[in-house]
Amino acid sequence: MKLDSARIAQELDQARQRLNRLSRASASLRPLRSPATPRRAIWRCDTATLYHYGADGAGDAPPLLVVYSLINRPDILDFSPQRSMLGSLRAAGIDVYLLDWGRPGPSHRYMSLEDYIDGLLYDAVAEIRRRSGGPISLLGVCQGGTMALCYAALYPEQVAKLVTVVTPVDFHAGNASMYHLAKYVDFDRFAAAYGTIPAGVLNVAYVGLKPFRIVAQRYVDMLEFATSPDALAEFMRMEQWMYDSPDQAGAAFREFAQHFYQNNDLIHGRFTIAGRPVRLDRLELPIFNIYANDDHLVPVPSARALGKHVASRDYREAEVAGGHLAVFVTRRAHTHLYPAVAEWLCS
Amino acid sequence: MNQNDITAILERLFREAQRAVADLGEFGRLVQEGDLEALPQHLRQRSQHFFLSLRRQLQDQTLPWLTMLRTWAKATDGATPAEILLTPLSWWQSQASGEEASTAETGSQQARVEALAAELAAARDAYLELLQDAADQAAERFGERLRGLDPEQLDIRRLYQHWLDTAEEAYEETIASEAFASATGRLANAWSELLLLLQDGLDRVLAQAGLPTRRELNETQVQIQELRRQQRQRERRLQAEIAELRAALDRLLTGTTSADQAP
Fold first, then answer.
1. Cα separations (Å) of A232 from A12, A237, B10, B47, B211?
2. Does the annotation count A142 as an active-site position?
């Protein structure tokens, strides 16, 4: 069985020509605007900044605080005017705030989950409540969703509604590849050795989950659309975001890996903050849980486990087609999902 | 994002795109050189070269550290402070000692370093062996898949896509296995121990020279975090007091106004 040799040569030649065209197309690229939606920094503490995006029109919904993961930067929530979760919610009349955790440095190696959740998040919520005078809603993304769940369980009187987006809840459910990676790592020694965990170490772990897709497939595919300036600009935004991860505060990283990934303490009611148990079964507030049906980082059963562990009588779910990032980048999410979230928040 | 950022991203993007085209080209060359039936065997050989080279790279990365640790260990097992201070300068000359070369050295520090070197090498080899097994599996499955394909319907891009899909599938099964979880943990733990032993050795040298050590730095960082927490508590108390005072002032003003308005 053989392939036509001349055809192979022609195909490879085309690939090289595409590479050259990519070179020419990139020469005309201008700096990309980021963030896409206007915002104002209204509060800063340590590494964290609280941004206010405001609202288009005067909606009745409580202000919404978006809590992102510690692992990556929240820029993906506001990539471009066409692909902006924050912009979509704002346009739908929601008064949007974003807590940007910033970038921990060597002096933050002992920052714990308590410092993040009962410290920075608590203070950011207090700042918004000082301005609005009432409860707020929380929207947590990925690890930020887990942190928002912890916060709502600790301070139910402060949170009106909760939206969780691609949020792990049962860390051992489904094809739990992250749990498998973390299972036998001694995180006490790991965090002691590194202090602040370098972003590069985590990037290797994440790329290592899908090396053929992320390393080979991505760039072969890219060559096929690289002559379109818009598509190339989108790709570059994603490229920058993927490798622009902050280092991790050692203590918080160790606690998250041990309590959540290794011991699955959240669903068993064993996780505590400042000596207070985080009990999901006491969460009675309205919850909107969004997950992606092909998410290799947060498998569907991990995200959907939330419904089984909370006491909320107003619990709903939405499934997005695609992987972990589909929730942020697909057109359908922006045309259908976020308007629905906004409507739910206003109801 | 400024123009420099764009340049940096573009450089990486070109590097990766060039690598992808080179990979595709290599794939095409393998197909051109032989029958499609021989392709899985070529891919298996290619992966063997890759993992051998990766093993050498990892070995090269750890060897200088291990050599330095060995030199220090020899010095610290009964050495004078002056000898300890001088040993970091000599480690470059003794790299030829070999990674797994366990000698009959005695002394607790030397034994610790040799045990670590052996564990690091074993953990690395066990990890790479699993990856090689995954690559072998991928090649075998790719062979099976090829037998079901029609060459008339194939081009290099489609063939390459079949390979990526098959390889990812085999790799995903491997990383979901208990053996891979165990190997990953073992390698990460051995690497942590290497770093901790290096830091311990460096600390002893720095302490001898009267310079700040990592242990001292850690203590400072603990204190900094504790100060942040104390400051946060003070600010919260202050905010609460201000809120109380404002409320009291409001009550007072309201009372005064009411009294003023009273007949």
1. 21, 9, 10, 32, 51
2. yes
